[in-house]
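Subject: Interface between my chains keeps coming out wrong

I've been trying for a while to get a sensible model of this assembly. When I model each chain on its own everything looks fine, but I need the whole thing in one frame so I can look at the contacts. Pasting all components below, labels as-is. Any help appreciated, I'm running out of ideas.
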Amino acid sequence: MDFNIIRCARTVLHVTDLEASRKFYVDTLGFIETESDSKNLYLRGLEEHNHHSIHLKKAEKPVVEALGYKVSSDADLDALDEFFTEKGFQTKWIKEGEQLALGRALRVQDVSGLPLEFFAKMDHVERLLQRYDLYKGARVQRIDHFNCMVEDVEKAQDFYMKDLGFACSEYTDTKEGKVWATWLHRKQTVHDQAFMNGVGPRLHHIGFWLPDPLALIHACDVLAASGYGKSIERGPGRHGLSNAFFLYLRDPDGHRLELYSGDYLTSDPDFKPIRWDIDDPMRQTFWGHAAPDSWFNEASVVLDVISGKEVPTKQPKLEQRKPEFII
Amino acid sequence: MDFNIIRCARTVLHVTDLEASRKFYVDTLGFIETESDSKNLYLRGLEEHNHHSIHLKKAEKPVVEALGYKVSSDADLDALDEFFTEKGFQTKWIKEGEQLALGRALRVQDVSGLPLEFFAKMDHVERLLQRYDLYKGARVQRIDHFNCMVEDVEKAQDFYMKDLGFACSEYTDTKEGKVWATWLHRKQTVHDQAFMNGVGPRLHHIGFWLPDPLALIHACDVLAASGYGKSIERGPGRHGLSNAFFLYLRDPDGHRLELYSGDYLTSDPDFKPIRWDIDDPMRQTFWGHAAPDSWFNEASVVLDVISGKEVPTKQPKLEQRKPEFII
Amino acid sequence: MDFNIIRCARTVLHVTDLEASRKFYVDTLGFIETESDSKNLYLRGLEEHNHHSIHLKKAEKPVVEALGYKVSSDADLDALDEFFTEKGFQTKWIKEGEQLALGRALRVQDVSGLPLEFFAKMDHVERLLQRYDLYKGARVQRIDHFNCMVEDVEKAQDFYMKDLGFACSEYTDTKEGKVWATWLHRKQTVHDQAFMNGVGPRLHHIGFWLPDPLALIHACDVLAASGYGKSIERGPGRHGLSNAFFLYLRDPDGHRLELYSGDYLTSDPDFKPIRWDIDDPMRQTFWGHAAPDSWFNEASVVLDVISGKEVPTKQPKLEQRKPEFII
Amino acid sequence: MDFNIIRCARTVLHVTDLEASRKFYVDTLGFIETESDSKNLYLRGLEEHNHHSIHLKKAEKPVVEALGYKVSSDADLDALDEFFTEKGFQTKWIKEGEQLALGRALRVQDVSGLPLEFFAKMDHVERLLQRYDLYKGARVQRIDHFNCMVEDVEKAQDFYMKDLGFACSEYTDTKEGKVWATWLHRKQTVHDQAFMNGVGPRLHHIGFWLPDPLALIHACDVLAASGYGKSIERGPGRHGLSNAFFLYLRDPDGHRLELYSGDYLTSDPDFKPIRWDIDDPMRQTFWGHAAPDSWFNEASVVLDVISGKEVPTKQPKLEQRKPEFII
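Reply #2:
Try treating it as a single job with all components included. I did that and got this:
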């Protein structure tokens, strides 16, 4: 590989009402609003020194425009362009200056149809990690990962591991030895990118890192007190897989967020991926609770990076399992 | 009133397998085993200086023998005897020495058919509050309250408030102005005794106090790691009513425990009871989650203090509501 | 006794700069500002349904005007007046309406020279316990206790226990059997009123209750980020005595606050007071840290309820000990 | 660079009494004892899948034998050998099998005289991250970093950054622009290796990662309850530098440990090191507390990897500062 992908770094989401989004993300969850105008809202977590990790765009329908990865240097972008082009993927360049605070960016639909974006440069802003006087809501520290539903998890996993250099921390397989879900990382945490078997390509959720479990509990209380009780879709609970203490929320447009704490270090090249049986009840929820149907069935549709149109979804290759057995 | 009831103080539960109970209560949840023999297990929390707050008796069926209240002095017992006898209740004395570590005790079936016990004296033991080296599991500090299902909540409430001197902190009523559930206290916390409309008389759960919310989360993790994932019936969550951060467990015999933290002080005589509408979704679970059916339907049968036989249950006076609207 | 004192309820403090006080108490620590004008600031904690627990008055010098106790009923005030008058104390009535939100109040200098106030009625306001969206800073829940330095602890203790009906939860004595410090309560917590041997009468600190230990740690972070690093005088740490997880702060005028969590229930009349040896290093700070000199030497001067002048202080009866051995 | 250092991975410490060490590390702090014999104790944290991160050897004097780094592959060891040899350093090989559970290891005295060790292979053992039933004491998750006192911080920093490929996250400098202390990392946390100006070469402390702040507070309580109050040297507190919530302990031989939580992600190559002024009071302790003299003056002497003798220490190049201004 001639390129070095650093980490999951930002997402571009379409939302239908920026004021409703601001009330949810900024006023309630406590994301920092770096910048905004009548059509855009740029948000970041408390430890982030990059301009934003969420870009919300006012639009007609709530879809996902891009899943952005930061790469090590500008030259990596050219190497990625060459790699994708050689493989037969159609890439698209966005020039520096076309996107606020970003250097030039490369976009491409990945092997599952997900709208990837790569960039090396984003403007630096003040890191507010020690501005505890500004902490509120969920005290979100930083973006952590993307979790996507795809029709063929093994194909997606192969591509990310063999071609893009991701490592696997944990995975779920079926009795027949088929990979049903997988957790992949570039940075040294459990994941930057997870895939699970389902109607896809769709974004299931974006994960955000919290400093401790009580911040998550407080987030529930603040959400409920602010009238967002129905936004709490699942949790709090402990995932067996990844050991995360989690909470799943739906934003005002239905995009799903995961708030969580409780990761572990995945720096070692000889770390052996942890296998979970799809029928192990502790895999999904260590404490044994079932996920609601909505968590299982609903996810955000993605856009085509070239046409700008919604990417049609397909049925998954493996059998879908009941919510109890999904993560 | 010529007597002074101090607080909810102990419960006598019948269980079918003492070893299974010990593994659950002592090894996993971290209750202190004060004393035991082949037929009895006496347990207490970390701040308790009384001999026990749970007495588990080996028996054929898992039922509730007694709900024990501590009174201020021995003379209060005679006053209570006189009061109940005058009112036409049949009382029963248990002599000092007949029950391990207890002074003489008075038992009586209350107005709803619940097996009450009153005592003034229990042996003192070492308080282990600062023996942090012994802390494990849920770090249970002390017994807090009884919650019982009764057929006529208003009748029960009237008796406890007018005749026994309890105060009400919070209550739920229906659109027709009927009390559907009520939280009553003698000590200065939210409750010693709660009643809710349901098939009764039955003990719904015994509440135990935890030092902080993370102890409750750790309890979930320890239970799951110890094979008790299925014992977690509901939670963690926040009750609107009482503001408790709660977890409901079923012990190996099906008796229900509530672990919780997050009370408030109820010392003021001019504190106005907080009213909750039965249809307020935040009443039961502040964060908006529904309770499982088992939480709504299942509870522990109680014994008759005179005959020692199970007290037959009756249908509740008010309509039963769906689990979403119960606490 | 013909009166029933409920609990430590409010304090009236003189401060020199109301804006500086507001920035510290409201903006940083998160107290709720119930009401204010150019000369007064009325503050309360999140669970308090009474109008205020701190009344800050603009004045030339930072002194203590009153330590206020809530009593059960208006008749208790007359009984207290009679009791104090018979004992030879000079009492002073403040009529309903003279103090904002308060019914009539009785003031008297106690046996140590401390300016006590008793009242039965204070206006009710909205309890904000579940308005988690308003939580900030230290998340202070309610006033908990007064801690005062007096020249003769045994005399003070006798008066409060025998004449006013307080119970003792814990105390410190010297090798000669003299009481060096004592923790007394009316409500069912460790204390409403503590006394320790020292130059007195002075108010050492007012204690406030926090919901959990992380709220206290967050308070440190917020104070530091807001430029109040120097206001943190001692802690966080664990007191052996009372088991409190504590933090001591100095407000902009030097009045001392204690933030803490980690109490226990003191409802039982047969609870035996816990004795601590003055030379036990774990008594003061369970973890073994020494208190700074300022904590040992500095305290707030009090006013005479009749003359309105500062009450002269006297040297304590017992030898003063090094800071390491004080709590 | 032809080698890839992964992370700080283990330390070999000489201790004088293995039973005393076991009581402290295993029984009290809750480290997992992987293996032991009459002369050795091998310990690991709860998330560690490698055999150990601390190797305690019974010896006459408490010194540091090695600071071990894990490298990516066996070939990296040869590349490191070549690199050091070319630079004029004397290296030493330890064959596979000579050290329990380890593959072959390369040792060398670094530019400051510190005894480095590199290895690629260590036996895998069960990861106990989700065995919550085994959690106790401090719930240590994993080794995090080494902090060493050296006479010339700039020289050490240059060597680690330019020759060994470390990146700098934060540093302290003097008014004259001299680097007084520096935080360097290979893995994506704040540090693997910190250097500070002082009598050296000596190991100041080994840092261990905890899952949350309450685990640290509980560690204090457990240590105190187990008779280790005097082992708590400093904290709990918040470092301005690194944002760590910290606790410093001295083991029974005087070796210093840091327990901490509260790091941040350092994955980005364009992360700008954070500069702290040596006179900024919030640098050392965000909340403003001073460190005790012992923390400033005492540290563990290291051994020469060739001779096995103690490495003589030298005075630091820059002026030593008062404890208040050190981290």
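Reply #3:
Confirming on my end. Confidence is low (pLDDT under 50) at residues 323-327 of chain C.
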